[in-house]
Structure formats: C-alpha cells, structure tokens
Amino acid sequence: MIWLNAIRIADPSKLDIGIHRISKAQRTSSGRMLMEIVAIKRAITLEYELIAGPALEMILNQLESRVFHTLRYPDPQGGERTMTVYTGDITESAWYTVGGVRQWQGVRIGLIEQ
C-alpha cells in the first residue's frame, strides 16, 4: 500500500526504489582515497501500466498542492518507510477511453527523498 500525504493512492504496477549514497571524497597527496558518507537517500518511481483518469488526477493534484510530500511505502529493508519527498519527472505515454473513463498507460512518477 502506498500513501501520499496521508491519502491512500492506487497501487502501482511496479515500484522502483533507488538507494543513493551521497559522499564527500578526496585524495590525499599519496593518492589514497578518503571518503565520508554524508547521507543515504532514496528515489522512488511509481509505475502504472494502466491507471484510471480520476486516480491519476488525484495523485497529480496532491503533487501540485505543495513542494514537499509525505510518502509511506513498503521498503526492502523491512516493513514500511515514511519519508519526505519532492516530485521528480512524471511521464505518461498514452491514453484511451474504456466504458466512458479515460485510462492512462505507461505512467511513471518520480519521487526523491528530501
């Protein structure tokens, strides 16, 4: 289950989680590398093979309502994780109508930890 700003959103077809180690590195005069891990941040991509227009509209409205958002999602390091994110790239590849409801295909929503 995915929650955005305390609102349950449609389950994505695919959830990609990137774990990024932000480091500060430099070489000593002898050539030895010194490195400090400054932070570990996550980048989440929600991918929808198909999502109904009203469900996508609700997600997009939430993402446009402010700069930072609270995201709760299942995490590979155990249980659920809650973090503050900002919006990255959002893409949709096609749409069509089924039973009077517009369906969006190939939707990808990027969310990056603050």
The CATH class, by name, is Mainly Beta
What share of the residues does DSSP label as strand, in percent? over 45%
Shape: elongated
Which whole number gives the mean pLDDT?
Answer: 95
The CATH architecture comes to Beta Barrel
Topology at a glance:
Blueprint: E1 2-4, E2 7-9, E3 14-27, E4 33-52, H1 53-64, E5 68-74, E6 80-91, E7 94-98, E8 101-113
Antiparallel strand pairs: 1-2, 1-5, 3-4, 4-8, 5-6, 6-8, 7-8
Describe this structure in words.
- This protein is 11% helix and 68% strand.
- By secondary structure, it is mainly beta.
- It has one domain: Elongation Factor Tu (Ef-tu), domain 3.
- Strands 1, 2, 3, 4, 5, 6, 7 and 8 form an eight-stranded antiparallel β-sheet that branches.
- The longest helix has 12 residues, at 53-64.
- It starts with a strand and ends with a strand.
- The mean pLDDT is 95.
Short overview:
The chain has 114 residues and is mainly beta. Helices cover 11% and strands 68% of the residues.
Keywords:
single chain; 114 residues; mainly beta; eight-stranded antiparallel sheet; 8 strands; Elongation Factor Tu (Ef-tu), domain 3
